[in-house]
Amino acid sequence: MVNINKNISLFQLQELLEANFQQKSTYLPEGFYKEQQKAIEIFNKRIFLEKVIDETISFNKKLVWTYEKSNLKLTKTAEELIEVFKLRSDVYTDINYQHEFPDTIEGLNFDKFDMTSAVIYYQKNKEVTASIRLIFDSKENLPTEGKVKFDDMRKKYNTIGEISRNVVKYRNEGLHQEFKYLMCGIYNIFINNDIDVALSGIRKDHLKLFKKLGGVEIYKEMEGYGSLDVPFLIISYNPEFASKFFKKVFLEQ
């Protein structure tokens, strides 16, 4: 179980440690200060984790979520989020994406964008086996804007977002089934909340699959994506234009 410590003393302790670190003594070896710096960095990461969990839960609880099947959920507890962060870390380590999507804390993969995201997960036999997030635009902008700007999309639409951290644990065992559920979750968030279009980075060879969903357009073609040296696309996705295939196969309408 994960208990979120919301006591202000945590932040007071952080300030005290950093203040003391600035006051070096001549009789202490330099190695002591290096170890102290590492300790402060670990403590700061813990403080950041507390903030991310707290604000992500608060953000998700304000969203409208109407999906009725119990195997797909919107994260609303610290325990659920920690399981999602663990899954991301495990998957990215397994597929060697850690350089592009590094853990903030070893074994836990999260960042500042989680705090304005609908974080969705799929559960199989009480185990979290897949997750995806839909980031709502904010003053922090969107993560892919480190590579390409979306200012033209902001002029065209009232609210934009970005789909990312799409991870599946058992990649050779039911990937399509879990992908189906995750996209149902994305659809649910789109339809019931104030968002117009989302951008997403995908491998070029995955375009055929995404096109079947409907409402998908190529926004930008790229030779690679960060350290990933494979053809990539930035696509825009609007579930309002979901295809008959998507409604029949994914939504079972």
List the helices and strands and how they pair.
Elements: H1 9-22, H2 30-61, E1 72-74, H3 78-94, E2 117-124, E3 127-136, H4 151-156, E4 160-168, H5 175-192, E5 197-203, H6 207-211, E6 216-222, E7 232-237, H7 244-250
Parallel strand pairs: 4-5
Antiparallel strand pairs: 1-2, 2-3, 3-4, 5-7, 6-7
Give a short summary of the structure.
GO terms for molecular function: hydrolase activity. This protein is of the alpha+beta class.
Summary keywords:
253 residues, alpha+beta, Aminopeptidase, seven-stranded mixed sheet, 7 helices, globular
CATH homologous superfamily classification: Gcn5-related N-acetyltransferase (GNAT)
Strand coverage percent? 15-25%
Radius of gyration based on Cα positions? 20 Å
User: How many domains, in number, for the residues?
Assistant: 1
Strand arrangement, largest sheet? 1-2-3-4-5-7-6
Q: Counting H and I runs of at least 4 residues, what is the number of helices?
A: 7
Walk me through this protein's architecture.
This protein has 253 residues and is an alpha+beta fold. The chain has a single domain, classed as 3-Layer(aba) Sandwich (Aminopeptidase), CATH 3.40.630. It is 39% helix and 20% strand. It contains 7 helices and 7 strands, in the order ααβαββαβαβαββα. The chain has helices at 9-22, 30-61, 78-94, 151-156, 175-192, 207-211, 244-250; strands at residues 72-74, 117-124, 127-136, 160-168, 197-203, 216-222, 232-237. Strands 1-2-3-4-5-7-6 form a 7-stranded mixed β-sheet, with helices on both faces. Strand 4, helix 5 and strand 5 (197-203) form a beta-alpha-beta unit. Helix 1 runs antiparallel to helix 2 (30-61). The longest helix is centred in the N-terminal third of the chain and has 32 residues, at 30-61. The chain is globular and about 70 Å long. Mean pLDDT is 85; it is low at 1-9.
